[in-house]
Write a structure and sequence with these properties.
137 residues, alpha+beta, Jelly Rolls, 5-stranded antiparallel β-sheet, 3-stranded antiparallel β-sheet, 8 strands, elongated
């Protein structure tokens, strides 16, 4: 089995934001030379997450609105005494910081309307890292 490791960085501009990273993942899978296997997309941050969904601006705004409703950024969370970002930690814990995607014939398997997004929950940030690891043959 072959293992390919790739890391990319993105910049975010809003407190809660979805950044489409599909092209980064597709590029890494292409460079890996792996025809069949799995691709792990991981955000090594306690205040970010990864989701797969449609890249449509209205839907993206709806997802951000729902995240805000669930994590309540303005609420007086106990963790805010330390770092004022409890909502971001809670969002990351609920959403998850990784996704596993199949790789078939050298490409990630995804539905017609599925793109891969980094979910910024504590922005803006100059640098958010995304780890992409492809395993297979």
């Amino acid at each position: 089995m072959k293992v390919f490791f790739h890391e990319v960085s993105v910049t975010t501009s809003r407190r809660i934001q979805l950044i489409d990273i599909t092209h980064h993942v597709e590029e890494a899978v292409g460079k890996s030379g792996i025809a069949n296997g799995v691709c792990i997309v991981f955000a090594p941050h306690a205040t970010a997450a990864v989701v797969v969904n449609e890249h449509e601006e209205g839907l993206i705004q709806d997802i951000v609105s729902k995240i805000e409703e669930i994590v309540e950024p303005e609420r007086s969370w106990r963790h805010n005494i330390i770092d004022d970002n409890a909502h971001a930690h809670i969002g990351s814990a609920i959403i998850g910081s990784e996704r596993v995607l199949p790789v078939r014939k050298g490409r990630i398997v995804r539905g017609t309307w599925q793109n891969i997004f980094l979910v910024e929950l504590d922005g803006p940030r100059k640098e958010r890292n995304i780890v992409i690891e492809v395993l297979g043959e």
